[in-house]
């Protein structure tokens, strides 16, 4: 379904691919934003500080107009590292993920084809070793209302199987709820008859 996407449950264990003396260490991480990406890149660069190449690719986003991605060759010949890694994210249909492949040169040049194969294979090994989960794309709403409307609000939340993400209960109350995208259109309709209850999509 269109409101489902696949991502990683947790960081993968280190994988190793060897070719003609060169060693390629691969890692995959679940990420939500560019701060996550910077953190994991620094972590791997510190771990492999003597390596010359820390190549990577990432993708964030779940809808076509919001998807961001980047592929970085980090000194390797153009398009021999970052794009082959990114190609595996596409092949496995994974998003909100970062793959880093670290290369130690073994003294024998692999050539363009050899490099492409090595980075692609290492990224593939990462994802084959990963715990992959399917998640729903959710829409979030904020419900603002006076306490006297509590029963009405809670009844609708229960009827529509809305997930409560947070709530503040005072004289004026606020509840943030979520529901998967394919079922979200019915939510505003449910609140329409109650003009004193305010529904805002976040």
Kindly describe this structure:
The protein is of the alpha+beta class. It folds into 2 domains: 4-135, Impact, N-terminal domain (Ribosomal Protein S5, domain 2, 2-Layer Sandwich); 137-201, Alpha-Beta Plaits, CATH 3.30.70. The protein has 5 helices and 11 strands, in the order E-E-E-H-E-E-H-E-H-E-E-H-E-E-H-E.
What attributes characterize this protein structure?
4-stranded antiparallel beta sheet; Ribosomal Protein S5, domain 2; alpha+beta; 202 residues; 2 domains; Alpha-Beta Plaits; 5-stranded antiparallel beta sheet; elongated
The helix-and-strand class reads alpha+beta
Topology as H/E string?
Answer: EEEHEEHEHEEHEEHE
Instruction: Return the CATH topology of the largest domain.
Output: Ribosomal Protein S5, domain 2
Biggest sheet: strand arrangement: 2-3-6-4-5
The rough form would be described as elongated
- How far is the first residue's CA from the last residue's CA? 22 Å
Number of strands: 11
Reported CATH architecture of the largest domain: 2-Layer Sandwich
Radius of gyration: 23 Å
Task: Quote the beta fraction.
Answer: 35-45%
CATH superfamily of the largest domain: Impact, N-terminal domain
- The parts where pLDDT drops under 50 for at least 5 residues are none
Task: Report the sheet with the most strands, covering strand number, pairing sense and barrel closure.
Answer: 5 strands, antiparallel
- SS summary, helix count: 5
Proportion of residues in helical segments: 25-40%
